[in-house]
Amino acid sequence: MPRDRLTAWVVTLALTVLAFAVRVVDLGRPNKLVFDETYYPKDAWSLLHFGYERGWPDDANAQIVAGSTDVWEDGPAFVVHPPLGKWLIAVGEHLFGMTSFGWRFSACVFGALLVLVTVRLVRRVTRSTLLGGAAGVLLSFDGLAFVMSRIGLLDIFQAVFLVAAVSALAADRDWFRTRLADHLQARGLADLGGVAGPVLLWRPWRVLAGVVFGLACGVKWNSIYVLAAFGLLSVAWDVGARRLAGAGSRSTMALLADGVPAFVSTVVLAAVVYLTTWTGWLVTSGGYYRDWGEQHPEATSTRLLGAPLASLLHYHAEIYAFHTGEFITEDATHSYDAKPIGWLVLARTIGIDAVNDIPPGTDGCPLDADRCQRVITGIGTPLLWWVGAACLLVAVLWWLGRRDWRFGVAVVGLASTWLPWFQYTERPQFLFYAITIIPFTVLAVCLVMGLLLGPPGPGRRRRVGAVVCGVFVALVVLNFAFFYPVWTDQVLTKDQWLDRMWLRTWV
Description:
Layout (H helix, E strand, L loop, with lengths): L4 H20 L15 H11 L9 H6 L18 H13 L3 H27 L2 H12 L2 H6 L6 H32 L17 H14 L5 H22 L9 H4 L1 H18 L2 H5 L8 H4 L4 H6 L1 H17 L26 E9 L13 E7 L3 H21 L2 H14 L19 H16 L6 H28 L3 E3 H6 L8
Antiparallel strand pairs: 1-2, 2-3
């Protein structure tokens, strides 16, 4: 690792503050519930007051904007995501009230934290504070990360926890290799001499990863795919470390010596942490299906687990049925349906909010304009995503062809956050799900930038590479500035809006 720890943290924190400053401007605009904010901020508000999600009347959104925030119904609401993300939204509501600023504040904070954990991940993987800083700049000025940091949805929380968990596993890789080296040095050995080496049951970074993966699953279930993929990858790293240290054929012993403790430290611990995120539902009595266990004392789950956990298990079965098609028919449609095959190249946008047909001379629309509109469009910074897609392809080739573990982090990150969506293409899907992909895309971009820069030191390659990389980062920032109006509800004429709709599928 680089020895500039203080400088690295100064850079990390400065970029985190920059990201927050960029995102917090006019955070409460528009002053209404937009898109899926119709669900999560209201769920969060009822969690604050009751510990579980309550139902709301049909006109609740208008009443909330008008200032009536206690209009929930007596009965519980059927919710299809775990409660942690909504509890995090509730923190902002507790601080600033049930207002548009309040229900977006926590997302804004986590949007900045996403920059922080990405900088640390990229620095650790690339061994470069420069590239870690570049990653922070790129992510600070990505449009999709920007928009998802300014609305009260769950996905930004999930993204932060996932990147933090992967960062912990990357740190565990270094920690384990250091322990192996210390083992050899303490015994005066050149290598392990064909034995498996020490068994290390306590690995703090892996335990931390388990905790944070549990938090990610407590926001959205599909975090399980990332947990499974990186859990396997981390054990593969252990096998490689023991082989490098001279374990020879005994290096496969890591599948047991390291794999079993890894399963406990990540999967089992994550499950325990996940269960704790349901505490509010478990310790209260009014949640949806909360009384199922009492009503079904003869059920096997009730007899084995007790009524509260049996009720929770039944609730999970119903949520799973919702997500897998019992409640979502194959002929369901949505105007912003975006299949995952097109996410990496931004084939389709997501409309978060729109006010169309603003008359000239009204709401800032120029008098000489035909008509104007204000929109919030969910879309990444095009230059970053298009170059990122090419860099992800390079990462696949470099990982498989050169066996470079660094590129494997980006590839496994992409695979575990993107490929699982292909099994649900019969239902509407949206581009904003890809918020968990972009940190790994940025990692791939920075790894390719590292290839262009070459090793530190004077030389023409380093100078040319620095110019190319610097120009690219600057162009991403300029690209962000050009698209800024369609991310922030700014008034645009139709022509100004069309100037930013670069693909026909964006219209």
